[in-house]
Every structure is written in C-alpha cells, then in structure tokens.
Design goal:
Protein name: ATP-binding cassette domain-containing protein
Strand content: 15-25%
CATH class of the largest domain: Alpha Beta
CATH topology of the largest domain: Rossmann fold
Keywords: ATP-binding, CBS domain, Nucleotide-binding, Transport
Bound molecules: adenosine-5'-triphosphate
CATH architecture of the largest domain: 3-Layer(aba) Sandwich
Number of domains: 2
GO molecular function: ATP binding; ATP hydrolysis activity
InterPro entries: AAA+_ATPase (IPR003593), ABC_osmolyte_uptake_ATP-bind (IPR051921), ABC_transporter-like_ATP-bd (IPR003439), ABC_transporter-like_CS (IPR017871), Gly-betaine_transp_ATP-bd (IPR005892), P-loop_NTPase (IPR027417)
Family: Belongs to the ABC transporter superfamily.
Structural class: alpha/beta
Strand order of the largest sheet: 6-7-8-3-9-10
C-alpha cells in the first residue's frame, strides 16, 4: 500500500449501495458490532424515508423541508473490531449520540442491520436487550447518574447488585475496581464529597464492575476541566492497554478523538464522512470538510515516518541510526536533529526508507515532496 493512499480505498463508505457490495472490510479481525445501512429518522412516517429513493439523497435541510423528518443517522455502515477504541466524532447535531444509542437500541433504529457478536440485535426481545445493556455493552454517560446517598463502593457495586450478586462478593469486586480506577481511600465517601473527575471515575468503575465486553462512552469527559479531562483520557487509554477491552467513545473534541482512538468515524449530518486511523484522517482527509476539520492538528504528533520517508539510495541501507516505521514524525525530527543527517527506517530488519530534514519538514509544512507516497510501507 502506498503511504499517501492509506485509507482512501479502505474507508467504509457511509452511503454504501443497497446490495451491500461495498460493505466495510474487517481485515479478518474479530467483529463485535456490525452495522449495515443503519437509519434513524425522527418525524412523521419516518419508516418510509429509507425506502424512498426520491428523498434519500436530499440534504438534511431539504429532507426536513420536504418531509418534516430529521435523519439523525443516514445509511451508515461500519464494524467495531474486538479490542479497539472506536471513536465517533462530529459537531453537535451530527448524529453521534443517536448512532451509539442505536447500538443497544436505547434508540430504536428505523431500518438497517445491526449485530453484536453475530447476533441480530434488532431481533432481540426485552430480556435479551436488558442483558445486552447490563452485561455486554455498558454505557458511561456524561452525567454519571450516581446514587447520592450511597458510598463510592456501593455505587460501583450497583450493577452487580442488580445482577443479584451477594453483598460480600459485590464489595470485594467493587473494591478491586475502585483501586483500578485510582479511587483507593475514597471508598466510603458519598458522590457529593467528590470532585467532578472523581465522580466520573466512579461512573467508569461502575460500568467496569459488570465486566462488559464493550464500554460505550457518551461524551464522558466534556464537563470536566481540561487537566482532569486529560487525566481521564489517559485513564481510558491505560485501561484499554491493560485490558484490551472494546470501547466505543463519542466526542466532539478532535484532540480527544486523536488521543484515545484506534479508529475514528467522523460524522456529518448523520453520515460517516470518513472512517480511519488518526493518521489516515489527518494525513489523508477524505474531503474538504475533513481537511478543514483537521487543519490545526499538529501533524508531527499524529503522523508517522511512513508518510515522510523517501526511497533508500545506494549505500544508505546499512549505516546510520535507525527508527521503526511507526515512529511519530516529532520523534523522528529529534532523532534527525541529534544525528545531524539522515535516519534509516527499519521494519523487520529491512531498511524500507530514509528520513532526513527535508522530507520531515515537507510533511510538517504539508508539502508533498517527490518522495511522498512512493515508498511501499
Ligand atoms: N427525539 C428526537 N426527535 C427529533 N429529532 C431528534 C431527536 N433526537 C435527536 N434529534 C436530532 O437528530 C440529530 C442528531 O442528534 P444527536 O443528538 O444524535 O447529535 P449529536 O452529534 O450527538 O449532538 P451533540 O454533540 O449535541 O450531543 C439532531 O439534528 C437532533 O436535533
């Protein structure tokens, strides 16, 4: 795959044909949620909208004027892979919350296919749905909904209580999770005696206590001040690294999306305009909207040397310092500055490219040099 084309051919398109021929590829990875042609329409005769080809291509505003309906989610298809942090990002009103609530049918989809672990979620009865929400895909909300008269440890154990787990076992398990999220020593406090960040940790701990396969976060940190927010983002990344739990994370904050996401689905007017890794979104924006969105991102902190390296010339393959192909441009800049010359990019013992001052600067300055895209990763 050429470095600059990364993502373009892999981006699952939100508006895939009805026959599913362009359904997203999962690269052989295990799929937790599989979503195909999902629609959620609010308004009169909403269920007719996805079927009616005379209105499905209208803009959000035209659709509203013509039908009185809002298509909060429009023909969206994607997979969430096991063990990834899948971020749903977009401006206010783009459909993030509606889409994620559709995954566990907290909002009932209008049409489309929806599976979790191969099971048809739309066909589930009330009992199966309750089980899904309680044990399999737990939601962490922005307003954490803690019980004010209960202690931290009892709030954390609440989900276990609902499951009928006995008090001793509940307290033991809740105590372990309290430690895990950095609340040790605060077990007996009431939520009102905690800071916003600590309360959010309790909310997170409560979701973790039931050991769900997937954690769904709805803008969990947007009410927190920036430093605590940063702390919580690191907490999520740490938990994810240690446990490999699958997470779906809604945010309208690009920096947050880039920090926590393995892949990001960028939404606009109910559609996914681009789905890719942070590097693909920042390095190969799908259209002007995405380009505008990522314009102020410090590219050197997101892009790797794969996008900067030039072909190896005679005599360069065996000498000089080496870096891995996943090294961030910012780290490579430091390495090149220290070495005073070119640095080899070595993958699996093989020199696959070279970075020097010029090609690193080209990426930072958004100049596509002649080497750009010519080196196979
Ligand atoms: N119950 C409803 N009835 C009618 N329209 C709705 C309803 N819920 C959401 N919408 C509309 O659907 C669109 C998507 O809303 P949604 O809340 O999913 O967006 P969002 O990206 O999560 O926004 P925010 O970041 O502000 O929470 C918006 O235009 C919203 O007004």
């Amino acid at each position: 795959m050429a470095t600059t084309s990364a993502g373009a051919s892999e981006i699952p398109n939100a508006r895939t044909p009805k026959d599913g021929s362009a359904a997203p590829e999962s690269d052989g990875r295990e799929v937790v949620f599989s979503v195909r042609h999902l629609w959620k329409v609010f308004g009169p005769k909403a269920d007719r909208i996805p079927e009616d080809s005379s209105v499905t291509d209208l803009s959000a505003q035209e659709l509203r004027e013509k039908t009185g309906c809002v298509a909060a989610v429009r023909d969206v298809s994607f997979d969430v892979h096991k063990g990834e942090v899948f971020v749903v990002m977009g401006l206010s009103g783009s459909g993030k919350s509606t889409l994620v609530r559709c995954l566990t049918r907290l909002i009932e989809p209008t049409s489309g296919e929806l599976e979790m672990d191969g099971e048809d979620v739309r066909a589930m009865d009330r009992t199966a749905l309750r089980e899904l929400r309680r044990r399999r895909a737990a939601m962490v909300f922005q307003h954490f909904g803690l019980l004010p008269h209960r202690s931290v440890v009892d709030n954390v154990g609440y989900g276990l209580e609902i499951q009928g787990v006995g008090k001793t076992e509940r307290r033991k398990k809740a105590g372990e999770i309290v430690d895990k999220v950095g609340l040790a020593g605060l077990e007996k406090r009431r939520p009102g005696q905690l800071s916003g960040g600590q309360q959010q940790r309790v909310g997170l701990a409560r979701a973790l206590a039931v050991d769900p396969e997937v954690l769904l976060f709805d803008e969990p940190f947007s009410a927190l001040d920036p430093l605590i927010r940063r702390d919580m983002q690191e907490e999520v990344v740490r938990l994810h690294r240690e446990e490999g739990r699958t997470m779906v994370f809604i945010t309208h904050d690009l920096a947050e999306a880039l920090r926590v996401g393995d892949r990001i689905a960028l939404m606009r007017d109910g559609q996914i305009v681009q789905l890719g890794t942070p590097e693909e979104i920042v390095g190969s924006p799908a259209d002007d909207y995405v380009r505008d969105f990522v314009r102020d991102v410090p590219r050197e902190q997101v892009l790797t040397v794969r996008r900067a390296m030039r072909p190896v010339e005679d005599g360069e393959a065996d000498q000089g310092p080496a870096l891995g192909p996943d090294t961030l441009i910012s780290d490579a800049i430091e390495a090149v500055a220290r070495s005073g010359g070119a640095v080899r990019i070595v993958d699996d013992g093989r020199c696959v490219g070279i970075v020097d001052h010029a090609c690193l600067l080209n990426v930072v300055a958004r100049v596509d040099g002649p080497q750009h895209g010519e080196v196979a990763a």
